[in-house]
Amino acid sequence: MKQSASTVSLSEKMNASTPEMTLEQVLTTYKPLLLKVINSYCQAPEDRDDLMQEISVQVWKSLHRYDGRVKLSTWLYRVALNVAISHHRKQKKETTESLTQVIEAPPPASENPQVAQLHRFINQLDEFNKAIILLYLDDLSHEEISKILGISKSNVGTRIGRIKEKLKQAFTQHKTQD
After folding, report:
1. Contacts with 87 (C-beta within 8 Å, 6 or more apart), sequence order
2. What is the pLDDT of residues 29-71, one digit of tens each?
3. Is the distance from CB of 37 to CB of 79 less than 8 angstroms?
4. I need a labelling partner for 110 at 20 to 30 A (CA). Which of 4, 20, 104, 125 fits?
5. Which residue has better confidence, 22 or 72?
6. CA 160 → CA 70, 101, 146, distances in Å?
7. Of the candidates 131, 41, 17, the residue with the CA atom closest to the CA atom of residue 77
8. Residue 36: which of 104, 141, 162, 137 has the closest Cα?
9. pLDDT by residue (tens digit) across 74-112?
10. How far apart are CA 119 and CA 139, in angstroms?
11. Helix/strand/coil percent split, the chain, to 5
């Protein structure tokens, strides 16, 4: 009996080594991955909750399109980043709050000051470079990043090098101002 795309289970789409998972299990298992994306694009806790909900809905709506050609985590990163970027753009249009205020939002209390400064510098990057460095800091390979963002591996490497240089310059400039 041939199944329609809507009745194919998630486990049938994933490779054989991945256990069968419900949508809830997928979201629970990959919550840390999703939170990294969310925390990079939202400063306020309410916005983070809204974005998590938007990502969850989009994963649910798009699940029938997951074909198993890439790892589930890679696919989820792509969905989460696309939703986060759209959410960020929508918020920029809806709010009159300046970008400076968002960037200068206080870091979490438990955060190391240098890590907090790194987050502020990363938040100053454009959306695409922010996505690249977020994935890089999450130890994804250049190949995985290229699949998630739809660019070549060499482009990923070039962009990471440029972003690192930009962040290094920002830290150097910040230290000379102190």
Report:
1. 41, 42, 50, 51, 54
2. 999 989 988 888 887 888 889 999 999 999 999 888 888 888 8
3. no
4. 125
5. 72
6. 22, 26, 12
7. 131
8. 137
9. 999 999 999 988 887 777 665 434 433 433 444 454 467
10. 17
11. 70, 0, 30
